[in-house]
Amino acid sequence: MKQATTGNAGPKVRSDIEITLIITDNGGVDLEIKSKVKSMYGTAIEKQCRELLHHFGVKNARLILNDSGALPFVIAARVEAAVRALTATEVSFMPEMIAENRYLSSRERFRFSRLYLPGNSPGMFLNAGLHSPDGIILDLEDSVAPDRKDEARILVRNALRAVNFYGAERMVRINQGERGLEDLEYVIPHNVHLVLIPKCENAQTVIRVDEKIRAIKKAAGQTEEVFLMPIIESAAGVEKAYETATASSSVVAMAIGLEDYTADLGVQRTKEGSESLYARSRIVVAAKAAGIQPIDSVFSDVGDMEGLLANVISSKAMGFEGMGCIHPRQIAVIRHGFSPSDDETERAKKIVLAYRDALARGLGVVALGSKMIDPPVVARAEKTIMLAVRLGLLPEDWAEAEAK
Amino acid sequence: MKMVNNAAGRMVPDEINGMEAVPFKGIGKHRPAGRKHAPPIPTCIDYPEDNNKVISSLAEALERCGLKDGMTISTHHHLRDGDLVSNQIFRIASEKGIRDLVWLPSASFPCNDPVIEYLENGTINRIEGSMNGPLGMFVSEGKMKGMAVLRSHGGRVQAIQDGEVKIDIAVLAAPAADAFGNAKGTGGPSATGVLGYAKPDYLYADKVIVVTDNLIDLPCFPMEIEGNYVDFVVVVDKIGIPEKIVSGTTQITKSPDRLLIAELTALFLERSGLLRNGATMQAGAGGTSLAIAVFVHEMLRKKGWKLSFGFGGSTKYMVKMLEEGHMGAILDAQAFDLDAVKSVEQNLNHIPYPVFNAYNYHSKGNLTTMMDIMILGATEIDTTFNGNVVTHSDGLLLHGIGGWQNCLHARNVIIPVPLFRDRIPVIVDRVTTLCGPGELIDVIITERGIAINPRRQDLLDSVKGKGLPLVTIEELKETAEKLCGKPEKASVDERVVAAIKWVDGTVIDAVRKVKKQTN
After folding, report:
1. Distance (Å, rounded) from C-alpha B116 to C-alpha B114?
2. Is A303 on the interface with B (CB under 8 A)?
3. How many angstroms separate the CA atoms of A158 and A75, rounded?
4. Long-range contacts of B364-367 (CB under 8 A, 24+ apart)
5. Whether the Cβ atoms of residue B382 and residue B428 lie closer than 8 Å to each other
6. What is the mean pLDDT of residues B62-85?
7. C-alpha to C-alpha distance for A112 and A355, rounded to whole angstroms
8. Ramachandran region of residue B133, left (φ > 0), alpha (ψ -120 to 50) or beta?
């Protein structure tokens, strides 16, 4: 008798289901449902499971369900994973791709905050987008236990179709190596905007992922570009940062992962971060040289919002343009920290106005009060203004408004 | 007994436990007649001249109060899940072979589950009060002999005052008392802060027993129970388990989704202009409410505003507003945490204020109608804004009404709730049990949008174009169903196991026996 168990159950588990599938020789399909929503959805759950087994061609089986309020896309993923664990089926069951998920991303969109969601914990999926992160990462790598990797990719695939991302950039972090390339087959056809490549040490890693994505897209007739964000997590990776950043035109951002990096160095990760100062600077410089966004590591103390803000401010000062987050409450702090402050915007406005005034009057030298202003200062001020306008902190016609 | 269609379109019994019941007639439509209930006239000839009413055991006190079959025993304590007194009453009664008692608690808690034994052996006929957990399940499955009656805190006062329920013996657990029977909620090892629900019990009961583990010299001041209404003072080792007295609900939610709802609620209060200098506010002690209080306090600080008063259940977050000068006074019927208990003792403007004086619909004014901002919860809200707080969507009786119905009379009733819990929609097409009519519920705030009752055009206008995610209640319901699927209705049979009273004593809905299900 073949038996497989997928999904999660337990007192702290929500919106998930644990499924034990036992394939039998005869007797048809026997269902055993334990569910806290049984009186409301028991019939619907039974019907769905029977239809799924029929879809996968399983005729004789016992299916034992321990449900904590899983939604249909989760139930479908768990049943499919159980069937795949026991049979050589190539059949999938795709939930409907909801209309809200068909939007596109763009190369230059903000990536201030990107929220990591463990790929095998569906409880957090549904509301993640409501917290308005710039990106949502469904993670198949470190947050998924090694023996759960197969079921996670099916769940993530279903989530990409059925879960509303509310406008966040749709990201997936794949595994390293061969498994990562296989992950791509599960996720790329479902409007993934960006793929995070973990533990990148050289251009080759990026190129392999890029080529695989192109092949999948070609086979499926997909045209939308899938962006890449390599994550540098080792000393060797830091040394090859520029090469990695320029490995493909699809690379739009490059991140640093400090837990692994400090482990690689054999040092403690501190809040001040002096041990990673060089690496972080190197990432910023390489990314800027390549014309992509440098992204900082996550701040792991989710209870310390002041520490997080200090971290964001120093990150921004170094040139980073975003940061990972592992808790929704970090999102607003990160966004606030990376946005131009009122003071910065005010100063930038004055500089840009003074510059425009000088141009209009044919003056070669720009001055603000008694202070001369060099061209790079103007360029920086222009960037700040642009950012403020894009973030909606300044109206587009701010200059005219200012003139009045 | 026959079932009649009440003004809210719900089928309710016209008789409850052999007594005639008035079906709900609409808000403010029922006019009481007659005079208030009164206990028999006592004489001090029957009480010791030194006024020492202390006796050694609860059993003796009950005996001397004439405990017998069919009596109604009321209890009040603020020991919450640390209550060591209530169960004892029924153990004593059971040992004496007493039958068919009616228990009228101000609330029941998981620690009261042992009374199931006395319900089963016939000592207790029924409970008229809140029922949670296994006790709720017991009633829902039709195992209680009599019909349960659920009332709000104010409704309990009204029922006692109007003589709908005649209390034979009131047993009141007090953290401090003197030998005369004066008692209060502060001091001693089981301090609970206030005893905001005891007043109707001691005023209207035939016999009154105060139970304390902290006998102090007369006068026990400021007294919340007045000694001249008290028959006996029983001194025991312990009335409560201190660590369980503080309710588990006074932790700010850590759930990012609930915090999002709290943030949205605070934003709504700010942008609608409901939050203003001098406003009055009440928010409960649930995790989301506490977070709202914290966000509101931040806004008050920024603007330099002060709420004129807040009504308790008090919590440390309210106390903080009080102590920082952002709230003029706390009128308090119950202290939810230790900071609040301490504050009652220390702050002159933290004033014990019984629900008797605040919530009773049959009185000369009702404090709740003065509240500008009222934050409440619900297990279900339907598309006509009707609310349910006592049953889950599966029909099981799992919560008390608390002060919820009374608080609906506030000027602006705001209910922050998640759109669904696990897979269970909170916004539904028809509430399983009607506890409060939609006419009184103004705003529903969920993580997926804010729905304002169309009756409140003024509120709709106040937030127009202010960047809030406004939706209709129907849209919320549809979103919930799209995500969760359409749930099957609760599977119940005809038998009524509990009646839900409205604040004026009329019957607003009935809870039916659930069909046995295996989970």
Report:
1. 5
2. no
3. 10
4. B366/B154, B366/B406, B366/B409, B367/B311, B367/B331
5. yes
6. 94
7. 29
8. left
Q: Which of 475-514 (B) contact A at CB < 8 A?
A: 483-485, 487-488, 490-491, 514
Record: fold of A2-86:
Ribosomal Protein S5; domain 2 (3.30.230)
Supply A196's token pair: 């995070």
Concatenate the DSSP letters of all residues of A260-307 into one string.
HHHHHHT----SS-GGGHHHHHHHHHHHHHHTSEEEBPP---TT-HHH
Strand partners, B350: B330
Report which DSSP code applies to B446.
E
Nearest by CB to residue B393, choosing from A40, A131, A328, is A40
Q: Answer yes or no: CATH 3.40.1080.10 is held by domain B256-491.
A: yes
The verdict on a CB contact (< 8 Å) between A131 and B260 is yes
Other Cβ atoms less than 10 A from the Cβ of B64: the count is 13
The overall average pLDDT reported for chain B is 94
Give the list of residues 6+ apart from residue A96 with CB closer than 8 angstroms, or none: A161, A162
B446: closest chain A residue by CA = A130
CA-nearest residue to B488 within chain A is A40
Q: Is B364 exposed, middle or buried (0-12, 13-18, 19+ CB in 10 A)?
A: exposed
DSSP structure string for A123-147: GGHHHHGGG--SEEEEE-STTS-GG
User: How much is the pLDDT for B111?
Assistant: 93
Of all residues in chain B, the one with the smallest CA distance to A36 is B519
| Whole-angstrom distance, CA of residue A97 vs CA of residue B365 | 56
> pLDDT by residue (tens digit) across B220-253?
999 999 999 999 999 999 999 877 876 545 678 8
Instruction: Give the chain A residue nearest B257 (alpha carbons).
Output: A127
Global pTM reads 0.92
Tell me whether residues B519 and A36 touch, CB distance under 8 A: yes
Could you give the 3-state DSSP secondary structure of residue B56? Answer: coil
DSSP summary character for residue A29: E
How far are the Cα atoms of B72, B94, B118 from residue B98, in angstroms, in the given order?
A: 12, 6, 10
A99-338 CATH pick, 3.90.980.10, 3.20.20.60, 1.20.58.480, 3.50.50.60: 3.20.20.60
Is B423 close to A40, i.e. CB distance below 8 A? yes
Would you call A34 an interface residue with chain B, using a CB distance cutoff of 8 Å?
yes
Distances in whole angstroms, Cα of residue B97 to Cα of each of B68, B122, B306: 9, 9, 57
B376-432 pLDDT, tens digit each: 999 999 999 999 999 988 889 988 999 999 999 999 999 999 999 989 999 999 999
Residue B222 preceded by cis peptide, ω within 30: yes
Residue whose entry in the numeric block shows the structure tokens 């016992």? A62
Matching CATH number, B55-245, of 3.40.1080.10, 3.40.50.150, 3.10.20.740, 3.30.930.10: 3.40.1080.10
Reported ipTM: the value is 0.89
Domain map of chain A by residue range?
Answer: 2-86, 99-338, 342-403
Q: At what angle do helices A72-86 and A149-162 cross, to 10 degrees?
A: 150
Contact criterion met (CB below 8 Å) for A159 and A126: no
Rounded Cα distance, B70 and B470, in Å = 54
A100 touches chain B (CB under 8 A): no
Would the CB atoms of A131 and B256 count as touching at under 8 Å? yes
- Is the distance from CB of B280 to CB of B373 less than 8 angstroms? yes
- Rounded Cα distance between B494 and A27, Å, is 38
Those residues with Cβ within 8 angstroms of residue A232's Cβ, 6 or more apart along the chain or in another chain? A200, A238, A241, A244, A254, A255, A256, A257, A261, A279, A283
Distance from CA of B123 to the nearest CA of A (A): 33
Side-chain half-sphere exposure of B11, counting CA atoms within 13 A: 7
Say what the pLDDT of residue B333 is.
84
Long-range CB pairs of B456-461, under 8 A, 24+ apart, other chains included: B459/B272, B459/B412
